[in-house]
Design a protein that fits this description.
Helix content is 67%, strand content 11%. By secondary structure, it is mainly alpha-helical.
């Protein structure tokens, strides 16, 4: 169900209604993208979303400690250990000595891990681009302007 916006005489939607509608569509788009992530995770790793999400976080972070990964992914330390172990065994991440504290290690993606993340991103971007090809130039410009505004509003 798509929420309908009522507008005032000046064709300006109510801010609360627009916020509700925007939240709704962003959540649905997020679910669709997570579903694609899950498909990637199952196809390439044979496991669920948590693993590919952790790999993406590691890829974006450069190198981080297991506890930092657990915090970012909102999973328990024992779970992060299982995730990192599997990713390391598959050659997607490696543990290296922490340059600031030799007693600890940090985790970083390998070239195979970076390729896997890039491949998934390209696949999901292609899927979004295919959807965008169905709209006209004016709508594409409008969507671009909305993207710019959202980026500015939320400092993304």
């Amino acid at each position: 169900m798509n929420p309908k916006l009522s507008t005032s005489e000046a064709d300006v939607p109510d801010a609360q209604q627009l916020a509700d509608a925007l939240r709704h569509i962003v959540e649905r788009l997020g679910r669709r993208l997570r579903s694609d992530w899950t498909e990637d995770s199952i196809e390439y790793l044979g496991v669920g979303y948590t693993y590919i999400a952790a790999l993406a976080t590691l890829n974006n972070a450069g190198s981080i400690s297991p506890s930092a990964l657990a915090k970012r992914e909102m999973i328990s330390p024992p779970s992060v250990t299982r995730v990192v172990d599997l990713l390391e065994n598959r050659g997607f991440v490696e543990r290296v000595e922490n340059p600031n504290d030799g007693r600890q290690s940090v985790i970083k993606t390998t070239s195979a891990g970076r390729r896997l993340i890039q491949k998934g991103r390209m696949r999901r971007s292609a899927s979004l681009a295919e959807s965008l090809e169905s709209i006209n130039h004016g709508e594409l410009k409008l969507l671009h302007d909305a993207f710019e505004l959202l980026t500015r509003l939320y400092d993304l």
